[in-house]
Design a protein that fits this description.
Layout: H1 10-19, E1 30-34, H2 42-48, E2 53-58, H3 61-73, E3 82-84, E4 94-100, H4 105-112, E5 116-126, H5 130-136, H6 138-143, E6 147-155, E7 160-168
Parallel strand pairs: 1-2, 1-4, 2-3, 4-5
Antiparallel strand pairs: 5-7, 6-7
Helix pairs in contact: 1-2
The structure holds S-adenosylmethionine.
Length: 169
């Protein structure tokens, strides 16, 4: 989440962090960014990867208003629709469901599995405890017949890493 005192770290902690795993998204994929907030990771991802269609899903009206303004100002057009909805109430399926700083893995599984198209994947941006979070969810993954893995990616220009949990069937 981008807080009011995050200005100095906006670029590396938020924008560059959002694109660190961009190589994991398949060419031309349909993507939904669940709990997009100020547009992270969806907007940087959509700018970097013009082949992707990135839906920004957000439940709070004030943030949706900002997202619509940002998409308009950045001229991202129909390729980046903004949808006001709770993830668990949204109907639609996508090749990739992505999210950042939204909820612990068990809750994400409940919200995001119905949004996955056949063969789809969840890519959740997480911190350094991603492997522990994945291991803790082993029972849940078995129950839903999901395969999980963690990808570590360098955050460009920062010397730091970020981690993505990938879940697939
Ligand atoms: C901590 S913020 C993170 C925002 C952004 N992804 C980021 O990394 O800065 C979590 C966001 O998820 C949204 N959110 C929480 N629960 C949601 C749900 N069930 N469906 C859709 N959005 C949700 C909140 O309104 C908030 O904007």
């Amino acid at each position: 989440m981008v807080g009011p005192r995050e200005g100095d770290r906006l670029w590396d902690r938020h924008v560059l962090n959002s694109i660190a795993g961009a190589d994991l998204f398949g060419e031309g994929a349909s993507v939904v960014d669940v709990g997009s907030g100020a547009g992270l990771p969806g907007i940087p991802l959509a700018i970097l990867r013009p082949d992707l269609r990135v839906t920004l899903l957000e439940s709070l009206l004030r943030r949706v208003n900002f997202l619509e303004l940002a998409v308009d100002e950045l001229d991202l057009g129909d390729r980046v629709p903004v949808v006001r909805a709770r993830a668990e109430e949204h109907h639609g399926t996508f090749d990739v469901v992505t999210c950042r700083a939204v909820a612990p893995l068990p809750r994400l599984v409940g919200w995001c599995l119905p949004l996955l198209a056949p063969g789809g994947r969840l890519l959740a941006l997480k911190g350094s405890s991603a492997s522990t979070e994945l291991a803790d969810a082993a029972g849940l993954l078995r129950k839903h017949r999901l395969t999980g893995r963690v990808h570590e990616r360098p955050v460009p220009g920062t010397g730091e890493s970020t981690w993505l949990i990938e879940l697939s069937r």
